[in-house]
Model the fold of this input.
Amino acid sequence: MVGSPELRARIEKAFVGVPVPTRIEEMRLPGRTDEDSYAMAAAFVGKPWTELPIETLFFHREALGSLSPAAYRAYLPAYLAASFASEDWMDKYGPDLRQYLLFTLKPWKHHKPERGAETIARLAALTDEQREVVADVLRFLVARWESEDAAEILRDW
Done:
């Protein structure tokens, strides 16, 4: 299951042609002025998601939720694909990458309403095909790692 070429191909197909932000100002949510969000924006801006190495995704994982909806849509496939990359790095990078990805997909119904609004805006930018691929990755995380967070997100999906 890990490294599923079919799921990777579906991610690539669903996100082909998504515009990549070319200015740092387009990358961050309004009001995000912290250094971490700027560093992530500077590292990712203008680059297709397929060119971002796992180490770069890992380094900036905590700032994933600071991306604007358009930037999130452009770079979400990198984090989706990293969720099931090779076993070689899975123990080192996988748990954190998966957890921060799930954090950005969580509905936050019962606390932190501002986080819920950010999640709604991120998900509203996705097409139906992209949402289905995200759901399939969530199903994978439930099946492979018994992720309760992924299962919770799927129930609210």
